[in-house]
Write a structure and sequence with these properties.
alpha/beta; three-stranded antiparallel beta sheet; 2 domains; Four Helix Bundle (Hemerythrin (Met), subunit A); globular; seven-stranded mixed beta sheet; Rossmann fold; 13 helices
């Protein structure tokens, strides 16, 4: 009796014929006819690397496919040459879906895209994000991994704090670095050791201006190293240079700025400030240390709330404080002030100020009231090449306050006409220079002989 045959369901792989299976008990022979060639360690490493890249690509494709609306399932009504043509959806259709690759057969769990609610008009504005350690480049130093995670979660937030943490992490990278044979430190260190660290930190959070300036100077320092210099001496010179930058451009600069700005506070004056900035805080404490009696009005950032901490510190130091939790009633408070002291994240070549959101409102209100606005900022935060006329070109989106209804920018732009002077670590003119003199200050920094 002839055996009854049934067609295989659509999508079910055909069973191999007799010729496709090797003989029982006999291993399949290699294509070359001999024993399989053993792979060298380098080949095994390359194979493992290729498999890892393939898995990453598969996961990426899965996320992309899952983010899209899946197309409606058809029963093969328009599939030319396919088995089961014209058959309706049923058990066979379900079986076909079951035999699909796992990429489309099961939807993986995907984290919510935090940028999905941002309008296209603001799509160019970057935002900090947490990068899983498993996705970091293999050459990223553990110290840099730690710093990147702290920056992405805003545990290290201030621009100067980020700069110092970055430089100290780079010092660890340089300490552990060894130049491969046949290479020179001045040509190999930057592209193969430093650049992966920089890329990772930038991926965690957009680089601040101080970090960009310091990294540019560090690269120039490395490129100027003579290829014939011993590696130990070259590394020691770089570590000393990093210590010098931290001590002079950060710590000494803070001391000098606080001292110069404190000289601008008169007895009986009322100084208004916005939020909490470390340079402004150090200035008030320095003025109190000098024996001056004055009052402070704090207009706090309603989203950050740093002004509360500043108010507690100043009151403990014996400084009378008037605290306002937001910008409400700003005009009369500014009009009652003698001066306005503001901290800056960066100053551009055209004299405009990049600072915490809300700073521009305070500065414009002060100018309308005839009150001088003094900005405190280190020269490591000066940008000599770029200009800024709006708050959208160089900014960040606050990842903690990004919803489907709204989002918040971390910084705003204050044009130079609202700023009466800038206090830097330079002592010329009492450290109080007009914002338009930014380029002259930078030239003086490069050449001390320039008057």
């Amino acid at each position: 009796m002839a055996a009854e045959t049934h067609p295989a369901p659509a999508g079910t792989p055909a069973k191999p014929g007799p010729t496709a299976a090797p003989a029982a008990g006999k291993p399949s022979a290699p294509a070359t006819g001999g024993e399989p060639a053993k792979l060298t360690p380098a080949q095994l490493k390359a194979k493992a690397k290729a498999e890892k890249a393939a898995r990453r690509a598969q996961v990426k494709d899965a996320r992309t496919a899952a983010a899209q609306v899946p197309p409606p399932q058809h029963g093969g009504g328009d599939a030319k040459g396919a088995k089961g043509k014209g058959k309706p959806e049923g058990p066979q259709g379900q079986n076909k879906a079951a035999h699909r690759p796992s990429i489309t057969g099961s939807r993986p769990v995907i984290e919510k895209d935090v940028r999905s609610s941002i309008p296209d008009f603001f799509s160019h504005v970057p935002m900090a994000k947490r990068v899983p350690l498993s996705q970091a480049h293999k050459d990223v130093h553990p110290e840099v991994l730690s710093v990147g995670q702290q920056m992405s979660t805003f545990a290290v937030k201030d621009s100067i704090a980020r700069l110092e943490a970055t430089l100290r992490a780079f010092a660890k990278v340089i300490e552990d670095y060894e130049t491969p044979k046949g290479n020179s430190l001045s040509r190999h260190l930057v592209p193969h050791a430093l650049n992966p660290q920089i890329d990772y930190l930038t991926e965690c959070r957009p680089m601040c201006f101080a970090m960009g300036n310091a990294i540019r100077l560090l690269k120039a320092k490395i490129n100027n190293i003579d290829i014939n210099d011993p590696e130990d001496e070259a590394k020691e010179g770089l570590l000393e240079w990093i210590d010098t930058v931290i001590n002079e451009r950060i710590k000494l600069a803070e001391f000098v700025i606080a001292r110069n700005a404190a000289q601008l506070i008169n007895d009986g004056a009322t100084i208004l400030t916005y939020g909490r900035h470390r340079l402004v805080e150090k200035t008030f404490l320095k003025a109190k240390e000098n024996g001056k009696s004055f009052n402070v009005t704090i207009i706090d950032d309603p989203f950050e709330g740093g002004g509360q901490d500043l108010a507690k510190i100043l009151r403990e130091a014996g400084i009378p404080v008037l605290y306002s939790p937001n910008l409400g009633g700003l005009r009369p408070k500014v009009a009652a002030a003698s001066n306005v002291f503001l901290g800056g994240e960066a100053i551009f070549a055209n004299g405009s100020l990049n600072a915490a959101s809300g700073t521009a409102d305070v500065a414009m209100t002060a100018q309308n009231a005839g009150v001088k606005v003094i900005v405190l900022c280190e020269t490591i935060n000066f940008d000599r090449e770029r200009v800024s006329v709006d708050a959208l070109t160089y900014n960040e989106i606050d990842p903690e306050r990004n919803t489907a209804e709204s989002f918040r920018l971390l910084y705003d732009n204050t044009q130079d006409r609202y700023i009466a002077g800038v206090v830097t670590e330079f002592e010329s003119g009492g450290g109080n220079s007009p914002a338009q003199a930014i380029l002259a200050l930078l030239r003086k920094q490069e050449d001390p002989l320039i008057a």
